[in-house]
Write a structure and sequence with these properties.
221 residues, mainly alpha, 0% strand, elongated
């Protein structure tokens, strides 16, 4: 039990740090232009800024992976049901997939845009876009985790906040394919806003986990 409690608290700390970094990166990132040429122009205007944003994103996503691994190992009430166990597994894999995108954009994509190397940019942008699909499933996993949190007795966040996170997670899950697959500009905007709201909830959730002993009733006397 002691290891479970400690694991939950440690996971909460890393989740809170990851969420702060991801929220900051999303604010700097903004919506993605569905036109690759225009998006290359956005990056070319300030490749250093784009690289910094994605290094921050890479660190944030790495910490999401770490959080997921700790939660899965802790065997706490967060993973009691098969769907929550699966959700934390999906969050871990989704963050790992997307982290490789962030590293590619911080290095090759930014450098290619700065050099005006369209061929290299297009090839690595396609790679980055494919790997970034992992964020969809990270968002869906957060929606499941938040939904479970709203239903549980030992809550780290209020019910209303958890349900907002459910909506935000689903919004990010749907906004990504709308923007990146179908070329709908509004979809990319929805993805950014929903992901930011989702990150604010995971920050709150992480702080709640770090502060409290989850799943243990207080002793009388």
């Amino acid at each position: 039990m002691a290891n479970t409690e400690e694991g939950t608290r440690v996971a909460g700390v890393w989740l809170a740090i990851a969420s702060i970094l991801l929220a900051g990166a999303l604010v700097g990132h903004g919506p993605i232009d569905p036109d690759m040429g225009r998006q290359m122009g956005v990056i070319t205007d300030d490749p250093v800024r784009w690289a910094i944003i994605h290094w921050v994103s890479a660190v944030a996503l790495s910490l999401f992976v770490l959080t997921g691994l700790i939660v899965l190992a802790a065997r706490s009430r967060l993973t009691e049901a098969w769907w929550t166990l699966s959700a934390w597994g999906v969050l871990t894999v989704g963050a790992l997939w997307t982290m490789t995108t962030a590293v590619a954009e911080a290095t090759v994509v930014s450098a290619a845009a700065a050099a005006g190397d369209t061929a290299t940019f297009e090839a690595w942008w396609a790679f980055s876009e494919g790997k970034a699909n992992g964020f969809m499933f990270l968002a869906l996993a957060v929606a499941v985790i938040a939904g479970n949190e709203a239903q549980t007795t030992h809550r780290a966040t209020p019910v209303w906040a958890s349900y907002i996170a459910v909506v935000a997670g689903i919004g990010a899950f749907l906004g990504w394919p709308l923007g990146m697959w179908l070329g709908v500009t509004l979809g990319s905007f929805v993805w950014v806003v929903a992901s930011l709201v989702m990150s604010l909830w995971t920050l709150w959730f992480g702080l709640g986990l770090a502060r409290t002993v989850i799943g243990v009733r207080p002793r009388n006397g």
